[in-house]
Amino acid sequence: SQKIEQNSEALNIQEGKTATLTCNYTNYSPAYLQWYRQDPGRGPVFLLLIRENEKEKRKERLKVTFDTTLKQSLFHITASQPADSATYLCALISSGSARQLTFGSGTQLTVLP
Amino acid sequence: KAGVTQTPRYLIKTRGQQVTLSCSPISGHRSVSWYQQTPGQGLQFLFEYFSETQRNKGNFPGRFSGRQFSNSRSEMNVSTLELGDSALYLCASSPRQATSYNEQFFGPGTRLTVL
Hints:
By secondary structure, chain A is mostly beta strands. Chain A has strands at 3-6, 10-14, 19-26, 30-38, 45-51, 56-59, 62-67, 72-77, 86-94, 101-103, 107-112.
């Protein structure tokens, strides 16, 4: 069956360090993958999109990689700040006929001052 | 531009009742998708409407239905509510069909509690 797994439900890191979040998928052939941030009581906010033919995408302190061989995406936040504390969700859509956006369960990141 | 708005923000119902939730997308956006978010199941896709037609449907029972109006506003209806329907219901809009290469803009959600 199709599955999207994000590493550990919770991740704590020290301010200034790089946070690395993992998104693994099975039985998908994603055309692209997206990352969202969600704060408590709010809807997710789009951060980055990476396509299957792209290896890496950057936006300010954020970097996403996409390895379709490993079936994995890594999401990095460099020079992390307490304001980066939130739940981060990966989402992907299959390139097949049943096209819908499916979300992972999320990783709750806490950046400690 | 105003963001996605959802009404009501909070709702309490009892089992067996029905409920209608409303979503107004960002101006110019033609796609509205609905999601259910619970602590146990995470964010799950319900359905997507584009130009007043349901384009995709997730794996939810027929008690969950929706529609989209000509101004792109969308409503979601849940009939015969069950305790397990308690969740945060999120809608998201995008300029083109959600399966295209574009981001989705989420509203703040409607918190539904079924007693």
